[in-house]
Amino acid sequence: MAFALRNQDSGSDVPPMADMNVTPLVDVMLVLLIVFMVAAPLMAVGVPVDLPKVQAKQINDQKPPIVVSIDSAGSFFVDQTAIDSDQLLPTLTSNSENDKERRIHVRGDRNINYGKVMEVMGLINSAGFTKVALVAEAPGQSTIK
């Protein structure tokens, strides 16, 4: 039992094409890759702070840390929310749901006084928070956005 896949009367001896054209698939995948490469840096959030560079391993934790930032003007931020210096401890207590074991990251701009950063860390520690850490960037990495 034989079937003719082409018209014998056309005089063409070209067999039918059996390969799949993957060019459109590759084009779509490349466009998606470029979109995600452009959009990924925009998803990083934070107050723009020029961090000092150090070599240390990253710390992994189950709960996201509460981030206290001090910008170059000396203003305080808790998770991107600007606060007054006297509201720092009540804001940390409410954000941590009174969990004194919650990790707190302190981000200080490299242009502010080191004593100011240490004063904030001491204030947080004196309130009973035990997991307070300084945040720095690795050499060759930039977090200014």
Give the SSE layout.
Layout: H1 23-39, E1 66-70, E2 76-78, E3 81-83, H2 88-95, E4 104-108, H3 114-126, E5 132-134
Parallel strand pairs: 1-4, 4-5
Antiparallel strand pairs: 1-2, 2-3
Notes on the protein architecture:
The protein is of the alpha/beta class and 145 residues long. It is built from three helices and five strands; from the N terminus they run H-E-E-E-H-E-H-E. It has helices at 23-39, 88-95, 114-126; strands spanning 66-70, 76-78, 81-83, 104-108, 132-134. It has a five-stranded mixed beta sheet, covered by helices on one side. Strand 2 and strand 3 form a beta hairpin. The longest helix is centred in the first third of the chain and has 17 residues, at 23-39. The relative contact order is 0.17. The mean pLDDT is 79.
Descriptive keywords:
single chain; 145 residues; alpha/beta; 5-stranded mixed β-sheet; 5 strands; 26% helix; elongated
Distance from first to last alpha carbon: 71 Å
Work out the helix count: 3
Q: Helix content range of the residues, please?
A: 25-40%
Strand tally: 5
- Topology order in helix (H) and strand (E) letters: HEEEHEHE
Point out poorly predicted stretches.
Answer: none
Q: Write down the overall geometry.
A: elongated
The biggest beta sheet is recorded as:
5 strands, mixed
Tell me the Rg in angstroms: 29 Å
Structural class: alpha/beta
Q: What's the mean pLDDT score?
A: 79
Question: Order of strands in the sheet with the most strands?
Answer: 3-2-1-4-5
User: Could you tell me the strand content as a percent range?
Assistant: 5-15%
